[in-house]
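Late entry, written up from scratch paper. The run itself happened at the end of the previous shift, but nothing got recorded in the book at the time, so transcribing now.
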Amino acid sequence: MNEIPPLQKTLVVIKPDGVRRGLVGEIISRFEKRGLKIVGMKMIRVQRDMAEKHYEAHKGKEFYIGLIEFITSGPVVAMVVEGVNAVRVVRKIVGSTNPEEAAPGTIRGDFAHTLPHGGKNLIHASGNEEEAEKEIELWFSPDEIHSYTRVDEREVI
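Output as recorded:
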């Protein structure tokens, strides 16, 4: 008998460029069409202190200040996405961090721009399970994360 892998939760943030370009619905639909479930979602304006906590692993790197300035430059849509192997599946859907290397069919491969002053890669997705747990705790309170059953879960799982 095949054992079903456990469900995971991961953080996804549609960055200011994705919001400004009107790609929120398109991006969300890619996760839902793949069978992933949105269990938490909100639009917020990220404050500097939160941005610094989110990107603390990059503190001291040459691109750190640019990350902070960009994520705080406009509203973002933050989501908790749940599914089987959600961290890995979401990363595949999102594509390579570098828009030039992102495969066609991925969110970044289809929509991210490479610009003379640097790329805007539209979206953040947690890199591993440990990072996902930490980021979800930073971005969402427990009462903002919901449990429900999608209709297709009964048929697919």
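The two ends are 14 Å apart (CA to CA).
(Scratch paper discarded after transcription.)
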